[in-house]
Protein backbone atom coordinates (compact mmCIF):
# COMPACT_ATOMS: atom_id res chain seq x y z
CA UNK A 1 0.00 0.00 0.00
CA UNK A 2 1.24 3.48 -0.89
CA UNK A 3 2.14 5.71 2.08
CA UNK A 4 0.29 8.70 0.57
CA UNK A 5 -2.85 6.60 0.23
CA UNK A 6 -2.55 5.33 3.81
CA UNK A 7 -2.03 8.79 5.25
CA UNK A 8 -4.75 10.56 3.26
CA UNK A 9 -7.43 7.97 2.39
CA UNK A 10 -7.22 4.68 4.24
CA UNK A 11 -9.93 4.10 6.90
CA UNK A 12 -11.38 7.61 6.49
CA UNK A 13 -15.02 6.44 5.79
CA UNK A 14 -16.00 10.00 4.92
CA UNK A 15 -19.50 8.96 3.78
CA UNK A 16 -20.28 8.21 7.44
CA UNK A 17 -19.70 11.80 8.54
CA UNK A 18 -21.08 14.19 5.91
CA UNK A 19 -18.01 13.78 3.64
CA UNK A 20 -16.08 15.99 6.02
CA UNK A 21 -12.42 16.06 5.01
CA UNK A 22 -11.21 15.92 8.62
CA UNK A 23 -12.54 13.01 10.67
CA UNK A 24 -14.71 13.56 13.77
CA UNK A 25 -13.48 13.09 17.32
CA UNK A 26 -15.84 10.49 18.75
CA UNK A 27 -15.64 11.81 22.29
CA UNK A 28 -17.51 9.11 24.18
CA UNK A 29 -16.76 6.52 26.84
CA UNK A 30 -19.41 3.97 25.84
CA UNK A 31 -21.59 2.80 22.97
CA UNK A 32 -25.26 1.77 23.11
CA UNK A 33 -26.92 -1.24 21.48
CA UNK A 34 -30.52 -1.46 20.17
CA UNK A 35 -31.11 -5.07 21.26
CA UNK A 36 -29.92 -7.33 24.06
CA UNK A 37 -28.81 -9.97 21.56
CA UNK A 38 -26.61 -7.54 19.62
CA UNK A 39 -25.23 -6.31 22.94
CA UNK A 40 -24.52 -9.87 24.09
CA UNK A 41 -22.72 -10.65 20.81
CA UNK A 42 -20.61 -7.49 21.09
CA UNK A 43 -19.59 -8.24 24.69
CA UNK A 44 -18.05 -11.54 23.60
CA UNK A 45 -16.33 -9.96 20.54
CA UNK A 46 -14.97 -6.80 22.10
CA UNK A 47 -11.85 -6.57 19.89
CA UNK A 48 -14.08 -6.11 16.81
CA UNK A 49 -16.91 -4.09 18.36
CA UNK A 50 -17.48 -0.68 19.90
CA UNK A 51 -18.53 -1.24 23.49
CA UNK A 52 -16.34 0.97 25.63
CA UNK A 53 -13.53 3.38 24.75
CA UNK A 54 -10.95 1.58 26.94
CA UNK A 55 -11.24 -1.13 24.27
CA UNK A 56 -12.27 0.47 20.98
CA UNK A 57 -13.10 3.94 19.77
CA UNK A 58 -13.66 4.85 16.08
CA UNK A 59 -11.25 7.82 16.11
CA UNK A 60 -8.54 5.73 17.77
CA UNK A 61 -9.25 2.78 15.45
CA UNK A 62 -8.83 4.93 12.36
CA UNK A 63 -5.36 5.82 13.61
CA UNK A 64 -4.59 2.15 14.41
CA UNK A 65 -5.44 1.14 10.85
CA UNK A 66 -3.16 3.77 9.37
CA UNK A 67 -0.30 2.95 11.75
CA UNK A 68 -0.58 -0.78 10.99
CA UNK A 69 -0.61 -0.13 7.24
CA UNK A 70 2.42 2.18 7.38
CA UNK A 71 4.24 -0.57 9.28
CA UNK A 72 3.18 -3.32 6.88
CA UNK A 73 1.73 -5.06 9.96
CA UNK A 74 -1.65 -6.79 10.23
CA UNK A 75 -2.73 -4.85 13.28
CA UNK A 76 -1.82 -2.03 15.68
CA UNK A 77 -2.84 -1.04 19.20
CA UNK A 78 -2.45 2.60 20.20
CA UNK A 79 -1.62 3.34 23.83
CA UNK A 80 -1.16 6.41 26.01
CA UNK A 81 2.66 6.53 25.85
CA UNK A 82 5.73 4.87 24.41
CA UNK A 83 6.44 3.52 27.88
CA UNK A 84 2.99 1.88 27.90
CA UNK A 85 3.78 0.32 24.51
CA UNK A 86 7.00 -1.12 25.95
CA UNK A 87 5.28 -2.44 29.09
CA UNK A 88 2.27 -3.94 27.28
CA UNK A 89 4.45 -5.59 24.65
CA UNK A 90 7.10 -7.03 26.97
CA UNK A 91 4.71 -8.19 29.69
CA UNK A 92 2.46 -9.88 27.12
CA UNK A 93 5.27 -12.24 26.13
CA UNK A 94 6.85 -13.36 29.42
CA UNK A 95 5.83 -15.37 32.50
CA UNK A 96 7.43 -16.26 35.81
CA UNK A 97 10.79 -18.00 35.31
CA UNK A 98 11.34 -16.62 31.81
CA UNK A 99 14.49 -14.90 30.62
CA UNK A 100 14.86 -11.86 28.36
CA UNK A 101 17.88 -10.94 26.24
CA UNK A 102 17.96 -7.18 25.74
CA UNK A 103 20.35 -4.87 23.98
CA UNK A 104 22.09 -2.67 26.56
CA UNK A 105 21.49 1.08 26.71
CA UNK A 106 17.91 0.82 25.43
CA UNK A 107 15.44 3.53 26.44
CA UNK A 108 15.85 4.25 30.16
CA UNK A 109 12.34 3.28 31.29
CA UNK A 110 12.50 0.02 29.33
CA UNK A 111 15.72 -0.72 31.21
CA UNK A 112 13.96 0.17 34.46
CA UNK A 113 11.08 -2.22 33.68
CA UNK A 114 13.50 -5.09 33.04
CA UNK A 115 15.84 -4.38 35.96
CA UNK A 116 13.37 -3.26 38.67
CA UNK A 117 9.82 -4.42 37.96
CA UNK A 118 10.09 -7.74 36.13
CA UNK A 119 12.50 -9.43 38.61
CA UNK A 120 9.72 -9.05 41.23
CA UNK A 121 7.70 -11.45 39.06
CA UNK A 122 10.59 -13.88 38.55
CA UNK A 123 11.59 -12.62 35.10
CA UNK A 124 15.29 -11.95 34.52
CA UNK A 125 17.07 -10.01 31.78
CA UNK A 126 20.61 -10.14 30.43
CA UNK A 127 21.76 -6.94 28.72
CA UNK A 128 24.24 -7.41 25.88
CA UNK A 129 26.15 -5.46 23.26
CA UNK A 130 23.78 -5.82 20.30
CA UNK A 131 26.33 -5.11 17.57
CA UNK A 132 27.62 -8.70 17.54
CA UNK A 133 25.23 -11.55 16.69
CA UNK A 134 27.44 -13.93 18.69
CA UNK A 135 26.46 -12.15 21.89
CA UNK A 136 22.85 -13.18 21.22
CA UNK A 137 23.83 -16.77 20.41
CA UNK A 138 25.88 -17.03 23.60
CA UNK A 139 23.33 -15.42 25.93
CA UNK A 140 20.20 -17.29 24.84
CA UNK A 141 19.22 -20.14 27.16
CA UNK A 142 16.32 -22.62 27.34
CA UNK A 143 14.52 -20.04 29.46
CA UNK A 144 14.83 -17.19 26.96
CA UNK A 145 11.38 -16.18 25.68
CA UNK A 146 12.07 -12.71 24.39
CA UNK A 147 14.72 -10.66 22.60
CA UNK A 148 14.32 -6.92 23.10
CA UNK A 149 15.91 -4.57 20.54
CA UNK A 150 16.25 -0.87 19.88
CA UNK A 151 18.00 -0.03 16.62
CA UNK A 152 19.66 2.37 16.60
CA UNK A 153 20.05 2.95 20.33
CA UNK A 154 20.05 6.50 21.59
CA UNK A 155 23.16 8.67 22.16
CA UNK A 156 25.69 6.44 20.34
CA UNK A 157 23.40 5.01 17.61
CA UNK A 158 24.75 1.48 17.32
CA UNK A 159 22.40 -0.78 15.36
CA UNK A 160 21.56 -4.48 15.43
CA UNK A 161 21.38 -6.93 12.51
CA UNK A 162 17.61 -7.40 12.51
CA UNK A 163 17.50 -10.16 9.91
CA UNK A 164 20.10 -12.34 11.62
CA UNK A 165 18.59 -11.82 15.07
CA UNK A 166 15.05 -12.58 13.83
CA UNK A 167 16.28 -15.73 12.11
CA UNK A 168 18.04 -16.92 15.26
CA UNK A 169 14.98 -16.14 17.40
CA UNK A 170 12.55 -17.92 15.05
CA UNK A 171 14.66 -21.07 15.12
CA UNK A 172 14.52 -21.12 18.92
CA UNK A 173 10.85 -20.09 19.24
CA UNK A 174 11.81 -16.74 20.80
CA UNK A 175 9.71 -13.60 20.27
CA UNK A 176 11.44 -10.42 19.04
CA UNK A 177 10.36 -6.88 19.98
CA UNK A 178 11.95 -3.71 18.62
CA UNK A 179 11.63 -0.10 19.70
CA UNK A 180 11.63 1.55 16.25
CA UNK A 181 10.96 5.11 17.48
CA UNK A 182 14.15 6.61 16.01
CA UNK A 183 13.36 5.44 12.49
CA UNK A 184 9.56 5.30 12.15
CA UNK A 185 8.12 2.92 9.55
CA UNK A 186 9.11 5.37 6.83
CA UNK A 187 12.81 4.74 7.47
CA UNK A 188 12.91 1.16 8.72
CA UNK A 189 10.38 -1.70 8.49
CA UNK A 190 11.49 -4.36 11.01
CA UNK A 191 8.69 -6.69 9.86
CA UNK A 192 10.51 -7.09 6.53
CA UNK A 193 13.45 -8.52 8.48
CA UNK A 194 11.24 -10.91 10.48
CA UNK A 195 10.81 -8.99 13.77
CA UNK A 196 7.54 -9.93 15.54
CA UNK A 197 6.42 -6.85 17.48
CA UNK A 198 7.30 -3.22 16.70
CA UNK A 199 6.72 -0.56 19.31
CA UNK A 200 6.87 3.23 19.18
CA UNK A 201 6.96 6.28 21.25
CA UNK A 202 4.53 8.08 18.93
CA UNK A 203 5.22 11.16 21.07
CA UNK A 204 8.31 11.64 18.93
CA UNK A 205 8.24 11.75 15.11
CA UNK A 206 4.73 10.39 14.57
CA UNK A 207 3.00 13.13 16.52
CA UNK A 208 5.83 15.55 15.90
CA UNK A 209 4.39 18.68 17.52
CA UNK A 210 5.49 18.19 21.14
CA UNK A 211 1.91 18.44 22.37
CA UNK A 212 0.84 14.87 23.23
CA UNK A 213 2.33 11.65 24.64
CA UNK A 214 1.40 8.47 22.73
CA UNK A 215 2.57 4.95 21.92
CA UNK A 216 1.95 2.22 19.35
CA UNK A 217 2.31 -1.58 19.25
CA UNK A 218 2.30 -3.24 15.81
CA UNK A 219 2.34 -6.91 14.83
CA UNK A 220 0.26 -9.87 13.71
CA UNK A 221 -3.51 -9.98 14.23
CA UNK A 222 -2.97 -12.97 16.50
CA UNK A 223 -0.48 -11.22 18.77
CA UNK A 224 -2.39 -7.93 18.90
CA UNK A 225 -5.61 -9.79 19.77
CA UNK A 226 -3.81 -11.64 22.56
CA UNK A 227 -2.43 -8.34 23.93
CA UNK A 228 -5.83 -6.64 23.54
CA UNK A 229 -7.70 -9.15 25.72
CA UNK A 230 -4.96 -9.25 28.36
CA UNK A 231 -2.50 -6.39 28.97
CA UNK A 232 -4.22 -3.73 26.85
CA UNK A 233 -7.63 -4.02 28.52
CA UNK A 234 -6.27 -4.60 32.02
CA UNK A 235 -3.52 -1.96 32.13
CA UNK A 236 -5.91 0.49 30.49
CA UNK A 237 -3.20 2.80 29.13
CA UNK A 238 -5.41 3.97 26.28
CA UNK A 239 -4.89 6.88 23.92
CA UNK A 240 -7.78 9.35 24.21
CA UNK A 241 -9.93 10.07 21.10
CA UNK A 242 -8.78 13.70 21.29
CA UNK A 243 -5.10 12.70 21.20
CA UNK A 244 -5.76 10.10 18.48
CA UNK A 245 -7.28 12.89 16.39
CA UNK A 246 -4.21 15.08 16.93
CA UNK A 247 -2.08 12.16 15.79
CA UNK A 248 -4.24 11.65 12.69
CA UNK A 249 -3.61 15.30 11.88
CA UNK A 250 0.12 14.85 12.50
CA UNK A 251 0.32 11.84 10.17
CA UNK A 252 -0.73 14.05 7.22
CA UNK A 253 2.61 15.85 7.42
CA UNK A 254 4.84 13.00 8.64
CA UNK A 255 6.69 12.41 5.33
CA UNK A 256 7.32 16.11 4.73
CA UNK A 257 8.43 16.69 8.34
CA UNK A 258 10.87 13.79 8.19
CA UNK A 259 12.23 15.02 4.87
CA UNK A 260 12.84 18.54 6.20
CA UNK A 261 14.47 17.29 9.42
CA UNK A 262 16.61 14.82 7.49
CA UNK A 263 17.82 17.31 4.87
CA UNK A 264 18.67 19.93 7.50
CA UNK A 265 20.50 17.33 9.58
CA UNK A 266 22.78 16.41 6.68
CA UNK A 267 23.62 20.09 6.06
CA UNK A 268 24.26 20.72 9.75
CA UNK A 269 26.46 17.61 10.03
CA UNK A 270 28.45 18.80 7.01
CA UNK A 271 29.10 22.02 8.86
CA UNK A 272 29.95 20.31 12.17
CA UNK A 273 32.36 17.82 10.56
CA UNK A 274 34.44 20.76 9.31
CA UNK A 275 34.41 22.58 12.64
CA UNK A 276 37.73 22.48 14.55
CA UNK A 277 35.73 22.60 17.80
CA UNK A 278 34.13 19.18 17.33
CA UNK A 279 35.83 16.05 18.66
CA UNK A 280 33.51 13.27 17.49
CA UNK A 281 30.14 12.73 15.81
CA UNK A 282 27.88 9.73 16.46
CA UNK A 283 25.36 9.28 13.64
CA UNK A 284 24.25 6.11 11.80
CA UNK A 285 25.08 7.45 8.34
CA UNK A 286 28.60 8.69 9.14
CA UNK A 287 30.94 7.22 6.53
CA UNK A 288 33.36 6.27 9.30
CA UNK A 289 30.65 4.23 11.09
CA UNK A 290 31.91 0.61 11.11
CA UNK A 291 28.24 -0.49 10.73
CA UNK A 292 27.59 1.69 7.65
CA UNK A 293 26.77 -1.26 5.33
CA UNK A 294 24.17 -2.59 7.75
CA UNK A 295 22.80 0.94 8.21
CA UNK A 296 22.35 1.22 4.44
CA UNK A 297 20.64 -2.18 4.34
CA UNK A 298 18.17 -1.52 7.16
CA UNK A 299 17.54 2.22 7.14
CA UNK A 300 15.97 3.91 4.13
CA UNK A 301 16.80 7.51 5.05
CA UNK A 302 18.99 9.58 7.38
CA UNK A 303 17.06 10.81 10.42
CA UNK A 304 17.34 13.96 12.53
CA UNK A 305 19.16 12.99 15.72
CA UNK A 306 22.88 12.68 16.42
CA UNK A 307 25.42 13.20 19.19
CA UNK A 308 28.61 15.20 19.20
CA UNK A 309 31.40 15.64 21.70
CA UNK A 310 33.30 18.88 21.81
CA UNK A 311 37.09 19.19 21.94
CA UNK A 312 36.64 21.51 24.89
CA UNK A 313 35.88 19.12 27.76
CA UNK A 314 35.38 21.85 30.34
CA UNK A 315 31.85 21.31 31.70
CA UNK A 316 31.13 24.95 32.47
CA UNK A 317 32.04 25.86 28.85
CA UNK A 318 29.76 23.10 27.59
CA UNK A 319 26.91 24.37 29.76
CA UNK A 320 27.49 27.92 28.54
CA UNK A 321 27.56 26.75 24.91
CA UNK A 322 24.23 24.91 25.34
CA UNK A 323 22.62 27.87 27.05
CA UNK A 324 23.87 30.33 24.40
CA UNK A 325 22.35 28.54 21.42
CA UNK A 326 19.22 30.39 20.36
CA UNK A 327 17.86 27.88 17.89
CA UNK A 328 17.91 24.93 20.34
CA UNK A 329 15.89 24.32 23.48
CA UNK A 330 17.44 22.32 26.32
CA UNK A 331 14.95 19.49 26.90
CA UNK A 332 14.31 15.75 26.83
CA UNK A 333 12.40 14.08 23.98
CA UNK A 334 12.81 14.80 20.26
CA UNK A 335 10.87 14.38 17.00
CA UNK A 336 8.91 17.63 17.26
CA UNK A 337 8.98 20.85 15.26
CA UNK A 338 11.59 22.38 17.54
CA UNK A 339 15.32 21.67 17.59
CA UNK A 340 16.61 20.34 20.90
CA UNK A 341 19.86 19.68 22.69
CA UNK A 342 20.43 17.36 25.59
CA UNK A 343 23.82 17.68 27.28
CA UNK A 344 24.99 14.43 28.87
CA UNK A 345 26.41 16.36 31.84
CA UNK A 346 22.82 16.90 33.02
CA UNK A 347 22.58 13.11 33.58
CA UNK A 348 26.07 11.99 34.63
CA UNK A 349 28.80 13.32 36.89
CA UNK A 350 31.20 15.86 35.44
CA UNK A 351 34.04 13.36 35.58
CA UNK A 352 32.17 10.76 33.51
CA UNK A 353 34.05 10.12 30.23
CA UNK A 354 30.78 10.81 28.35
CA UNK A 355 30.10 14.11 30.14
CA UNK A 356 31.11 16.20 27.12
CA UNK A 357 28.55 14.57 24.82
CA UNK A 358 25.63 16.63 23.53
CA UNK A 359 22.67 15.03 21.77
CA UNK A 360 21.16 17.12 18.99
CA UNK A 361 17.70 16.79 17.48
CA UNK A 362 17.09 18.87 14.37
CA UNK A 363 13.53 20.15 14.01
CA UNK A 364 11.79 22.00 11.21
CA UNK A 365 13.66 25.30 11.31
CA UNK A 366 15.73 26.35 8.28
CA UNK A 367 19.15 24.67 8.32
CA UNK A 368 20.94 27.96 7.60
CA UNK A 369 19.35 29.57 10.66
CA UNK A 370 20.64 26.73 12.86
CA UNK A 371 24.11 26.69 11.27
CA UNK A 372 24.52 30.44 11.79
CA UNK A 373 23.66 29.99 15.47
CA UNK A 374 26.07 27.03 15.85
CA UNK A 375 28.85 28.86 14.04
CA UNK A 376 28.57 31.91 16.28
CA UNK A 377 28.55 29.93 19.52
CA UNK A 378 31.18 27.34 18.56
CA UNK A 379 33.48 30.22 17.71
CA UNK A 380 33.14 31.53 21.30
CA UNK A 381 33.86 28.11 22.77
C1 LIG B 1 10.75 8.70 24.35
C2 LIG B 1 11.08 7.32 24.05
C3 LIG B 1 10.35 6.25 24.60
C4 LIG B 1 9.23 6.49 25.59
O1 LIG B 1 8.12 7.05 25.00
P1 LIG B 1 7.08 7.99 25.79
O2 LIG B 1 6.11 8.34 24.73
O3 LIG B 1 7.85 9.15 26.33
O4 LIG B 1 6.47 7.19 26.89
C5 LIG B 1 10.68 4.97 24.22
N1 LIG B 1 11.69 4.72 23.36
C6 LIG B 1 12.42 5.72 22.83
C7 LIG B 1 13.51 5.37 21.88
C8 LIG B 1 12.15 7.04 23.15
O5 LIG B 1 12.90 8.02 22.63
Automatic annotation (TrEMBL):
Cofactor field: pyridoxal 5'-phosphate
GO molecular function, one term: carbon-sulfur lyase activity
Gene3D superfamilies linked to this entry: Aspartate Aminotransferase, domain 1, Type I PLP-dependent aspartate aminotransferase-like (Major domain)
Cited SUPFAM superfamilies: PLP-dependent transferases (SSF53383)
InterPro entries for the chain: Cys/Met-Metab_PyrdxlP-dep_enz (IPR000277), PyrdxlP-dep_Trfase (IPR015424), PyrdxlP-dep_Trfase_major (IPR015421), PyrdxlP-dep_Trfase_small (IPR015422)
GO cellular component, one term: cytoplasm
N6-(pyridoxal phosphate)lysine PTM positions: 204
Alphabetic keyword roster: Aminotransferase, Pyridoxal phosphate, Transferase
Biological process per Gene Ontology, one example term: transsulfuration
Family stated for the protein in its record: Belongs to the trans-sulfuration enzymes family.
Protein name: Aminotransferase class I/II-fold pyridoxal phosphate-dependent enzyme
Organism for this UniProt entry: Emticicia agri
